[in-house]
Design a protein that fits this description.
alpha+beta; 4-stranded antiparallel sheet; 1 helix; 31% strand; globular
Length: 58
């Protein structure tokens, strides 16, 4: 699953550069991501927009 950091957290970076794949969901609800160090909470990411994701795959 892909997640995108909120623009406020990673300023001046494109949406594609702020998007990462989840590597592991931890028991405390935080996640580890492929390609970036650390653990992150849900509040660090943009809300999922299933319609946008569906359109990207089509």
């Amino acid at each position: 699953m892909l997640v995108t950091f909120r623009a406020e957290i990673m300023k001046s970076i494109t949406r594609e550069e702020r998007t990462f794949r989840i590597q592991k969901v931890l028991p405390n609800g935080r996640v580890r991501l492929h390609g970036i160090e650390g653990e992150f909470s849900e509040t660090a990411f943009e809300a999922l927009n299933f319609l946008r994701e569906k359109a990207r795959r089509s």
